[in-house]
Design a protein that fits this description.
single chain; alpha+beta; Rieske Iron-sulfur Protein; Naphthalene 1,2-dioxygenase Alpha Subunit, Chain A, domain 1; 2 domains; four-stranded antiparallel sheet; 13 helices; globular; binds FE2/S2 (inorganic) cluster; binds fe (ii) ion; Rieske_2Fe-2S_sf; metal ion binding; 2Fe-2S
Length: 440
């Protein structure tokens, strides 16, 4: 249970709010780079700010305020130039930093362009990496955009999936340090969706939470597991400050504003040995819907089940009314770490938890994962098809609902087999099999 004040500290992300200022000091994936193959400008709302994201004629990305400072026209209707974006109302032009670069009529009247030099709107750095556009909205200089090792894995097919959720970011992120939900939200709920009398999977018996350089980890032992189980020896990573890394995919929860969150899922499907070498030409991105054609919330796929849990807690969940237990030790640990970090920021500390400042340290940054070796070295198809973590990915896109046919077809070509197009995935999710032991 938290006080109302502490709940606000965790959840308010607008400009000037402590958590908003804190999270702005990290890079966040905000869009698919391939979105800009067909268009040059799009609106985006992040941390309570209305912005436009654009790709100019030189191929550079920019993220600037959405309203033109002249007479408030919407820059989403602007057109890109060699450098930056021009307002389509009276032609004022803005560069990536938000600096005004051209005020056509004003500069005819005053060739020294004093007014233009004094005109600047907000502009935030954007970088492209792993098929996604990453934004940094904090004070400059910015720390390094982390070069996580999994973003550099070879011989695989990556895809980036975006969805806007009607709830606060922190309840999504609490899920990254919540192992027990796997059993109930994924395994057992999938079983019950198919058969109301279906039996439950083995329950959790032990949990362990630890802090490491780039976040927290959780480890689990379930009924029937032995202590050499990869989920106990390695576990999973709650990646600081707002991500969850599971070896074959990573999820980020990026605040849109206090009541909405951009879910970003980056999946990497390792191709079987027989398909090597495989080089992906372009990483596709797509938008995952939350509701089906009947207006019902989708609950068939893994992250859609998570979404249901998160938005089900309310727009901004009321943490003055909760009853935490032993299963929530990781949640408590994470909240405490955020409070410590907010204090550190208030004291003016530049090095915040898990930030990388030294470029020499930012190469292929190691993150533990339960299937790291398999992702790097690959395995023959026959072996991969029955692998307890990677096998299901060869057979279906069960992580999130709504994969477009064009992406599925490219993926099928890459891995060399057809998807089964199942509608339920009872056996796909980690923990569904009693016989599961180690990764090798
Ligand atoms: S409103 Fe943008 S240039 Fe006038
Ligand atoms: Fe989940």
């Amino acid at each position: 249970m938290l006080s109302e004040e502490k709940n606000r500290l965790l959840t308010e992300v607008g400009p000037g709010k402590p958590m908003g200022e804190y999270l702005r000091r990290y890079w966040h994936p905000v869009a698919g780079a391939d979105e800009f193959d067909k268009k040059s400008v799009r609106a985006i709302r992040l941390f309570g700010e209305d912005l436009v994201l654009f790709k100019d004629l030189s191929g550079n990305f920019g993220l600037i305020e959405r309203r033109c400072p002249h007479r408030n026209a919407d820059l989403v209707h602007g057109y890109v130039e060699k450098e930056g974006l021009r307002c389509s109302y009276h032609g004022w032009q803005f560069g990536q930093s938000g600096q005004c670069l051209h005020q056509p009529f004003e500069e005819v009247m005053d060739p020294s362009a004093r007014m233009r030099q004094g005109t600047k709107i907000k502009g935030y750095p954007v970088k492209e990496k792993a098929g996604m556009l990453w934004a940094y909205m904090g004070p400059l200089p910015a720390p390094e955009l982390p070069d996580w090792d999994f973003l550099n894995f070879k011989n695989g097919f990556a895809q980036a999936i975006f969805s806007e959720l009607p709830c606060n970011w922190f309840q999504c992120q609490e899920n990254s340090i919540d192992p027990v939900h796997f059993e109930w939200t994924h395994n057992n709920w999938m079983v019950r969706q198919q058969d109301p009398n279906g039996s439950n999977v083995p329950t959790h018996l032990q949990l362990q939470f630890e802090e490491f350089e780039y976040g927290l980890t959780y480890k689990r032992l379930r009924g029937g597991d032995t202590e050499d189980n990869i989920m106990w020896t390695v576990g999973r990573v709650c990646l600081w400050p707002n991500a969850f890394y599971l070896g074959h995919h990573c999820e980020w929860r990026v605040p849109i504003d206090d009541e909405n969150t951009l879910s970003v899922m980056w999946m990497f499907g390792r191709v079987p040995k027989e398909m090597e070498p495989y080089e992906q030409k372009k990483i596709p991105s797509w938008v995952g819907p939350l509701k089906d054609e009947n207006g019902e919330w989708i609950i068939s796929h893994v992250i859609n089940q998570d979404f249901a849990a998160w938005y089900g807690q309310g727009r901004i969940t009321d943490r003055t009314k909760e009853k935490l237990g032993q299963s929530d030790k990781g949640v408590v640990m994470m909240r405490r770490k955020f409070f410590e970090e907010l204090d550190a920021m208030a004291e003016g500390k530049q090095q915040l938890f898990a930030q990388i400042w030294d470029p020499a340290q930012n190469e292929d940054v190691f993150l533990p994962s339960a299937c790291r070796e398999e992702m790097i070295h690959g395995m023959p198809r026959e072996q991969q098809n029955v692998h307890h973590l990677l096998g299901p990915y060869l057979n279906d896109c069960f992580g999130q609902y709504g994969q477009p046919d064009r992406v599925r077809e490219e993926y099928e070509k890459a891995v060399g087999q057809k998807m089964k197009m199942a509608s339920t995935f009872v056996n796909a999710v980690h923990g569904a099999h009693k016989e599961e032991t180690t990764s090798k």
